[in-house]
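FIELD: query
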Amino acid sequence: MSRPTDAAGALPAVVTGGVRRGSARHSDVAGLGRARAGAFVAPALALVGLFLVFPALWTAYLGMTDYRLTGLSAQAPNFVGLDNYTDTLTDPAFHASLRLTLVFVLLSGVLGQSLLGFAAAWVLRTTNRAVKSAIEFLVLLAWIIPSSVVSFLWIALLDRGDGTLNAMLGTEGMSWLTQYPMTSIIVFNIWVGTAFSMLLFSSALASVPPSQLESARMVGASTWQQLRDVVLPHIRGHILTNTLLITLWTFNTFTPYLLTAGGPNHESEILPVYIYKVAITGGRLGVGAAISLIMLLINLVIATVYLRVLRERK
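FIELD: result
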């Protein structure tokens, strides 16, 4: 049956009015009204503005000055426009640090922590409960111990003179931190951060229907086929979430500085360490702020790409 219309073919006012009232109710599900809803979210917006927006704007402003830690520029910094940004983007030292950071993120975060965390979660899925609890406790211990303590333990492990690793391998005199600085901080970061991936993937694997795995086993599917055809499609969202968080955390971590201080000869100088040396050690706060803003933009690009992939998956 067709809906009644007037001579011009428009729907009656009572019908369209009902639709408008329904749309209004739909957009205000909580029934708070615009004013009360604004008052409800105002504290959260104020905190976001205070701790996120304002520091970002202040950093952008500092990046356009010659602000220094000491001297006349510390008291009265001059506005230099985009000079700090253009100088940074054409600086070979920045390019080298960015390359090291990307290698560090890819090997220690995206591949190392994610793959090791998934492997641990997959193996622990069918392990004895007591053994599983003991292994989870040890892995979590590496995650919750303060970074300064963990760094001291690793320096003791890799020490040239009395290091534990040299004693175990019989390689007395080997200085791991100076001969293999990037490898050392990559392994160190994998060891520290694997616990998060393991916990997330343990939760994700628990959501896979056992009946589907059992059906796959009954038709003779191998472990790899079960992973590819049953497990991975179910946990794809968890994988993207884990990769996003691991990438951002690893990109911004400063802990490797406690092991190698970016050396020797800048061979392990990832971006957070490079910024620290420019801004604090070198006293060039304006340039350090410009590099920080560039780093923030890189983080935003990475997050946008991941979120876009997640949205497309849905």
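FIELD: remark
The chain is about 75% helix and 0% strand.
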